[in-house]
Amino acid sequence: MSRAYGGGMTPSDILRANYRPIGGVLCLDFANTVDWHDSERRVELLADAECLAAWARIAGAGDVDPAAADLHRACRLRDAVWAVFRAKAKAETVPGDAVAEINRALERAPAGRRLRVSGDEVVWADGTDGGTDALLGAIARSAAELLTDPDRRARVRMCAGEGCGWLFLDESRGARRRWCSMQGCGNRAKGRAHYRRKARLTQV
What we know:
Layout: H1 11-18, H2 26-31, E1 34-35, E2 43-44, H3 49-58, H4 68-89, H5 96-108, E3 114-118, E4 121-125, H6 132-147, H7 150-153, E5 156-158, E6 167-169, H8 182-203
Helix pairs in contact: 1-3, 4-5, 4-6, 5-6
Domain Zinc finger CGNR: 155-198
Protein name: Zinc finger CGNR domain-containing protein
Pfam family, one: zf-CGNR
């Protein structure tokens, strides 16, 4: 995936140009709302409350109308989720303060699930249409379920692209997926490897 950040783009334009839900689970998709997350050149994709609402729609998490204070809480939760699963992907100790942040979102979430009518079907609803607390609660529950499932947790990976930092659930055969996407970091890595091979040949 090519990155696009300038040219008079609005924050929502930048989000739509640079974000794809590749995580495989809601909490990892939310963690990926920073570009180049594991580098010094990180780019915030949730630059304003409108971006958070746009992300919820892109991720299929419902419609919300967040305020600026909601965005601040959302980014704290996002960073906590990323820190927890980055630690898991790198076999490091999980930071306790990040787990505490996820717990705060769980505590603020509306209790229980409910039914809603969708077309001709009756489906479970997690309440993400009930406001930002419900949206963040759904993300926190997604993180809690993934953290407490040893088999799925063991499949959490960080993209091998230098500085990318995006996380995903590796459900590939043989659990051999390395990249957030072959079109983005995968292609860049292939291009660098080709350049290095060519450079070695010219030096012989």
